[in-house]
């Protein structure tokens, strides 16, 4: 099955918007097809780039390494017993071994390499496999800064060290660069899927911010939140975090960042003249979205968003442009952050940037480009460089003075963006105008 058949996968079952959502069986088939493509065509390249010719992942059931979770076939919701995966890259011969020191084949991609009747000790079976291949470097998932790449737990690490002969133990290195590249790198097949996933996200937000859901003076912000959760469930999808809907209005002071991000938002009745904002993301076939958009509830006599709010929104788009214009291969997250903040402030903006990698996890592996409470840079994860074929939640805000309201507001935006060989693009466009909701 290749791209033509893959595209057909996106055109079946229940309709929502201008596309259709796959059945559970078709999602499983698609997920396994994507995984096979990643193992056979992407992983060898990533191992060569990291200079690691053997990668060992070890997990026990219900305590899975975050990287291993992304490698399990669709019918495996968890690891089984103790699952040990071994990938061996022979670059000279252009081959890659995908093996499991486990009682079972791990789907169709990874073959069992342990006969317990011949060798009852699983650790000894692993050591024999290592010796037969004699790798130069053995990568294991340990990391000081990236939790996603630090999945080898203490018990399994100690068991590995106890089993390895000294000459093999000396080959152990952190697989951090390989683990992060596996998590962050997107394939062509995945990007075809991502376009649909982001469109679904946008369509749910558009329906939530409409009179189908909101009756001004009656509907509360929490009503909209739970409508979004229910909509996702009804479509057979999942949310990867609980959504939020908050309100900015002319007679209420702007909350501080720490109050907004740590204490959440109170449930309020939505009224004409309110500026609404949502934070919402879904999970579909192993990928995630993360999106923030704005809507305005028209007051009596209004037919469009007031110009002062529309102009403020454009400043949010301008901050996005500054940030994504600084995406350059090899530039670290901290370098991108500081350069973008400097340019934005030089233009008179009051920016805050907290952009993160997006993909198989919502807060995924890759360069952190600021946090809302770390605008001077983020040690460790912020020092990681930008690579191509990666996806980011372009998350940021700019504070804008609204004179008719005699107060500041915050334009908070977030959209999925792809950085590839041709530079940056939004996965499926971005919001460039505030959504309008008719009043009474």
Question: How does this model look, in words?
Answer:
The protein is of the alpha+beta class. The protein has 2 domains: 3-182, Creatinase/prolidase N-terminal domain (Creatine Amidinohydrolase, Chain A, domain 1), CATH 3.40.350.10; 187-437, Creatine Amidinohydrolase (Alpha-Beta Complex). 34% of the residues lie in helices and 22% in strands. The strands form 5 sheets. The chain has a 6-stranded mixed β-sheet, with helices on both faces. Strands 15, 16, 17, 18 and 19 form a 5-stranded antiparallel β-sheet that branches. A 4-stranded mixed β-sheet has the order 10-11-14-20. α2 packs antiparallel against α7 and α11 crosses α12. The radius of gyration is 24 Å and the shape is elongated. The model is unreliable at 1-13 (pLDDT under 50).
List the helices and strands and how they pair.
Layout: H1 3-9, E1 15-16, E2 19-20, H2 24-50, E3 54-60, H3 66-69, E4 82-90, E5 95-101, E6 111-112, H4 122-133, E7 138-140, H5 154-163, H6 166-169, E8 172-174, H7 176-184, H8 188-208, H9 221-234, E9 238-239, E10 244-248, H10 257-263, E11 275-280, E12 282-284, E13 287-288, E14 291-297, H11 307-325, H12 333-346, E15 351-353, E16 356-357, E17 390-402, E18 407-420, E19 423-426, E20 435-437
Parallel strand pairs: 3-7, 5-6, 7-8, 14-20
Antiparallel strand pairs: 1-2, 3-4, 4-5, 9-12, 10-11, 11-14, 12-13, 15-17, 16-17, 17-18, 18-19
């Amino acid at each position: 099955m290749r791209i033509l058949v893959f595209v057909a996968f996106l055109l079946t079952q229940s309709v929502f918007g201008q596309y259709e959502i796959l059945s559970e069986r078709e999602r499983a088939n698609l997920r396994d097809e994507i995984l096979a493509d990643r193992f056979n065509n992407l992983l060898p390249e990533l191992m060569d780039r990291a200079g690691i010719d053997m990668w060992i992942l070890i997990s026990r059931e219900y305590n899975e390494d975050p990287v291993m979770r992304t490698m399990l076939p669709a019918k495996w919701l968890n690891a089984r017993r103790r699952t040990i995966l071994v990938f061996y890259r022979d670059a000279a011969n252009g081959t890659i071994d995908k093996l499991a020191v486990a009682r079972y084949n791990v789907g169709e991609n990874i073959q069992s390499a342990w006969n317990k009747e011949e060798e009852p000790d699983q650790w000894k079976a692993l050591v024999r496999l290592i010796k037969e291949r004699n790798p130069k470097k053995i990568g294991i998932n340990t990391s000081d800064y990236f939790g996603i790449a630090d999945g080898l737990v203490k018990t399994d690490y100690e068991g590995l060290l106890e089993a390895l002969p000294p000459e093999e133990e000396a080959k152990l290195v952190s697989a951090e660069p390989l683990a992060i590249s596996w998590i962050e790198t997107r394939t062509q097949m995945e990007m075809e899927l991502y376009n649909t996933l982001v469109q679904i996200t946008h369509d749910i937000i558009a329906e939530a911010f409409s009179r189908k859901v909101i009756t001004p003076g009656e509907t509360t912000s929490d009503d909209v939140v739970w409508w979004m959760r229910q909509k996702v469930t009804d479509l057979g999808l999942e949310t990867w975090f609980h959504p939020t809907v908050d309100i900015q209005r002319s007679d209420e002071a702007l909350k501080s960042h720490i109050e907004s991000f740590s204490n959440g938002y109170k449930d309020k009745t939505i009224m004409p003249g309110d500026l609404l904002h949502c934070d919402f993301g879904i999970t579909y076939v192993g990928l995630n979205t993360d999106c923030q958009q704005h809507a305005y509830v028209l007051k009596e006599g209004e037919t469009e968003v007031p110009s002062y709010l529309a102009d403020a929104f454009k400043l949010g788009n301008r901050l996005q442009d500054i940030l994504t214009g600084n995406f350059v291969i090899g530039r670290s997250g901290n370098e991108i952050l500081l350069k973008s903040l400097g340019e934005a402030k030089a233009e008179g903006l009051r920016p805050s940037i907290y952009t993160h990698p997006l993909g198989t996890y919502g807060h995924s592996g890759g360069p952190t480009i600021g946090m809302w409470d770390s605008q001077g840079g983020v040690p460790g994860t912020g020092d990681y460089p930008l690579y191509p074929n990666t996806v980011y939640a372009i998350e940021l805000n700019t504070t804008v003075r609204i004179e008719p309201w005699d107060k500041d507001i915050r334009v908070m935006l977030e959209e999925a963006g792809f950085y590839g060989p041709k530079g940056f693009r939004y996965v499926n466009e971005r919001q460039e105008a505030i959504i309008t909701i008719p009043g009474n």
